[in-house]
Amino acid sequence: MENTSHRFERLPASADERDVEGRATREAVLSYWTDRFGVPRDVLAPYTFWEKGAGKIWIAASDVPDGLEVESLGMTFLRTRQEHWKPTTNAAQRFGRHATRNVIDLSPADARAFVAGEDREVEWDGDWGYLIAAHEIADGAADEAREDADRAGAESSARREPLGVGLYLHGELRSMIPKGRRREL
Amino acid sequence: MDALERYEPIVDDYAAFREACERPLPSVVRANGIKADPDRAAAALEDEGVTVTRRAWNPSILEVDTDKPGNTWPYFHGWIHGQEEVSAIPARVLDPEPGDAVWDACAAPGSKTTQLADLLDDAGLLMANDDNLGRLSALRSNAERLGATCVAVTNEDARRFTADGFGIDAFDAVLADVPCTCEGTIRKNADALDTVGREASLNIAALQTDILRRAIRLTREGGTVVYSTCTFAPEENEGVIDRVLDDEPVALVDFDVDLAHSPGLTAWNGETYDGSLTRAKRFYPHQNDTGGFFCAKLEVGA
C-alpha cells in the first residue's frame, strides 16, 4: 500500500505491523523523542499518531477511526521520511519542556534572533543536528516537566521555555521557525 | 434612522449604550492554560513592560495596555490569544468536561475553539467545523500555536454536519456560535453597522435556526448546547431560540456569568417569545466596557 496524502492514517505500532512502505511506526516516534531529547515515554504514550501527507506525522489527544478525511487532526508533530527527523516548532513548544538533552539555552539576544528566523553562531559542544532551542522567561514551568529533568539528572529551570527547533551545524544554529511564526521582539 | 436606534426601548441607559459604542475596545487577551497558567503569562507580560489587569469573572482574561499583544514573548509561546472579553463567555457557559466529545459548529478563526480545548484540558474530541475554507487556515494555525491536540478541523456546511465516521454516537456539548450581523463588534469594526437592520437579521435568522437545530440533533440526551451571537438583534437571538423551542426537545436553563447583563427578551416588535427566554443573557457594551453579546444555554432532551 502507498501513503495517501488526503487521509489521516494511523501509524503502525511497530515495524511488524507496517503495511505502508516507509511509514514511521509509533514505536519509532516514541523512541525518537526519548533517544534524541530525553522526553519520557509516558509523556507521549497517551497520544495517537497519524500520517497525512508524505512524512508528515500528526499527534492527537483523541482516538478516532483510521482514515478520516478531515482538514486537520491534532497538531503537526514531526517530519519523517528523511534522513534526520525534524520536530515541528509547535511540537517543540508543547512537549519540549520535558526534554532533558539536546536542548540549547539561548541568551536573550540569541533568542530574539532565533524567533526572527536568523541564523547565529552559538557555542554548543553537544550533538549536531536538530536541537530544541530554549530561553528563560518568567518562572512557573510546570512541576511535571521539572520532575522529568530531575529524574534525568539534567539541568532544569522553572524559567526555561522551549522556542522551537534549530539545526546546529559547523558552529551555527539555523532557525527552523516557519515564516508565519517569526516575530521581531 | 440609524441601525441602533431601534434598540432604544430595550436597552437600559440608552445614552450610555450609544456612548460606549463610540469608544474603542480595551485590549484583552485570554491566557491559554494548555501551555501556561494565567499567572505565568501575566508575569511574562509584566516583565516586558505590559501592564496586566485581571478580570474577576474569568481569571484567564487579561486586559493589557498594548495594542500589539501579538508582539510579545507570551504570544510567541502560545500562552496568550487575542480574544475579546465577551467572546470568552460561551465556552465558559458550555463548560465541557475533559474527555467529552464536543462540536464547535462555526469555529473559525478559533478563539472559542482553543478556549474549549483549554477547558477540556486538551483531552477528548473537539470537532471544530467551519464552512469557510479561507478562515480555516487561521483556525488551524491558532490551534497549533496554542498547542491544542484534541481538535479535529472539518470544512462542512454546519447545517448538514454529521458525526458519522468519528467513532461517536452524539456530542456531549455543542457550541453554536453562529454567523450573525455582528452589530456588537461596532467598537472594533467601524463599518459593522453598514449593512445591518431588521431585514438583514431576518435573512440570516433562517441559517441560524438551521444550525441550531443541527446542533440540538447531534447532541446526546442530557447534553448541552450553547447558542451565541455578537449581535443585539432579537430576530437573531431570542427569535431563533423561540422557534426551535416549539419543535425540538430542548429547554433553556439558567447559568451564571459574573458580568453585568440584561435578561433575554420575551417580547419584541409586536411578537412575544417563550417566557423561559429570560434565562438567556444580553451583554451590552456599556455594562462591562466590552463588545455586545448574546448567550443562551440549552439542555437537550428536557
Task: Summarize the topology.
The complex is a heterodimer of chains A (185) and B (302).
Chain A (H helix, E strand, L loop, with lengths): L8 E2 L15 H12 L3 H4 L3 E4 L4 E5 L11 E2 L1 E5 L6 E2 L1 H7 L7 E3 L2 H8 L4 E2 L7 E8 L6 H9 L8 E10 L2 E4 L10
Parallel strand pairs in A: 7-9
Antiparallel strand pairs in A: 1-2, 2-3, 3-5, 5-6, 8-11, 9-10, 10-11
Chain B lengths: L13 H9 L5 E4 L6 H10 L4 E4 L2 E7 L8 H4 L3 E3 L6 H6 L6 E4 L6 H9 L5 E5 L3 H13 L5 E4 L16 E7 L20 H20 L1 E11 L8 H10 L2 E3 L9 E2 L3 E2 L2 E2 L8 E3 L1 H4 L4 E8 L2
Parallel strand pairs in B: 5-6, 5-8, 6-7, 8-9
Antiparallel strand pairs in B: 1-3, 1-4, 2-3, 9-15, 10-15, 11-14, 12-13, 14-15
Helix pairs in contact in B: 7-8
Protein name (chain B): SAM-dependent methyltransferase
Pfam family, one (chain B): Methyltr_RsmB-F
GO molecular function (chain B): RNA binding; tRNA (cytidine-5-)-methyltransferase activity
Question: What can you see in these coordinates?
Answer:
Chain B: Belongs to the class I-like SAM-binding methyltransferase superfamily. RsmB/NOP family. Chain B: InterPro entries: MeTrfase_RsmB-F_NOP2_cat (IPR049560), MeTrfase_RsmB-F_NOP2_dom (IPR001678), RCMT (IPR023267), SAM-dependent_MTases_sf (IPR029063). Chain B: GO terms for molecular function: RNA binding; tRNA (cytidine-5-)-methyltransferase activity. The complex is a heterodimer of chains A (185) and B (302). Chain A contains 5 helices and 11 strands, in the order βααβββββαβαββαββ. With 185 residues, chain A is α+β, with helices and mostly antiparallel strands. In chain A, strand 2 and strand 3 (56-60) form a beta hairpin. Chain A is globular and about 50 Å long. Chain B has 302 residues and is of the alpha/beta class. Chain B has a single domain, classed as Rossmann fold. Chain B has helices at residues 14-22, 38-47, 73-76, 89-94, 111-119, 133-145, 198-217, 238-247, 285-288; strands at residues 28-31, 52-55, 58-64, 80-82, 101-104, 125-129, 151-154, 171-177, 219-229, 250-252, 262-263, 267-268, 271-272, 281-283, 293-300. In chain B, strands 5, 6, 7, 8, 9, 10, 11, 14 and 15 form a 9-stranded mixed beta sheet that branches. In chain B, strands 2-3-1-4 form a 4-stranded antiparallel beta sheet. Chain B has a two-stranded antiparallel ribbon with strand order 12-13. The longest helix of chain B has 20 residues, at 198-217. Chain B is globular. The model of chain B has no long low-confidence stretch (mean pLDDT 96). Classes of the chains: A alpha+beta (185), B alpha/beta (302). The interface between A and B is large, with 32 and 41 residues.
